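Worked example 4.2. Below are the chains of a multi-component assembly; read each line carefully before continuing.
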Amino acid sequence: MIPALIPMVTGASLTFWICAPLAVLGALGLVLFRKAVYSALSMAFVMLNLAVLYGTMDAPFLVFVQIIVYTGAIMMLFLFVLMLVGIDTPDSVIETLRGQRWLAALAALGTVGLLFFGIGGSVRSGPFAGLTEANAIGNVEGIASLVFGRYVFIFELTSALLITAALAAMVLAHRTRVTEKIGQRLQAAQRMRDYAETGAHPGPLPASGVFAGHNSIAVPALLPDGSVAESSVSRTLVLRGAALDPEDLRSMTADRFAAIEGVKEEEGDE
Amino acid sequence: MTNPENVLMLAGVLFTIGALGVMLRRNALVAFMCIELMLNAANLALVTGSTMNGGLDGQVASFFVMVVAAAEVVVGLAIIMTIYRTRRTTSVDDANLLKL
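Applying the procedure described above to all two chains together yields the following structure tokens:
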């Protein structure tokens, strides 16, 4: 028999050597990206790679749970909160504790050393059992018989945990209203009161302007005397500098009208 | 089959990176995601243990870890939102009311 000079490469180990570096890269991205959204995306990437690794280790049930629960639910929850908090919230780069980075790196080295040589040394080497026998009745069926058999009490406890978590989220998200809710009726009454006291116009705000070339909401409307109606453009657009200059628009409109007049005159000549 | 020792090493590396992130990052959300990374690394180790020993107990344990992680994320994110609402920040440095 020919001795195997080249170690046999199976599909599973090939997948491992592709996915493991990608997972480590994603994890490094999670720590090193300054923007929280990039961190969240690299975290989702790590989770997907781990799902593939579960697939190579005879755990098809966990592949789907990993993708649905972790990548689907948990990471999207993170992204929702990121959107609520605002992605622009800066992460300070100033060290508040002196030498924190070096100490953290040292601690990380210590952790990896402990895991590799301390605990890794006690891991017995092969031959490993593999899951062919345990998965004989099917992976999902095997897990189900354990969850509803040997671990049924823990399973019941998780239901209590989930209910507690849902309650906790509702309690934490609850906000006591300190002012009265302003409904349509109150708003209308307030408008009329403003009109009586200050003379503020009770009707809707004027629409944006319509010119020959533009009619977007960034276009200010003109009053009958030719001045700009300030309230016709949103203050946000004005502050952002997105509002257009009415003089340019006016000259453009005048040019268009002049062109139309010119065509009319030519036609009249013929 | 993948060599389980390599997978355990990967789990160790991922756990360490997660721990490093918790120590380095000041954004509460990113620190929280690093905790999730550590939980994922532990899950990977559990699944590997399952293949090494030929039982599905490791996979069941990993499943329970996912359930606990989901509950933890709900409460943790609610706390981060509450802190953000009162203090307008997600930096863990600014939640210092208990500091002497």
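Take a moment to check your reading of the output against the notes. Chain B has a mean pLDDT of 89. Residues 50 and 56 of chain B are 6 Å apart (CA to CA).
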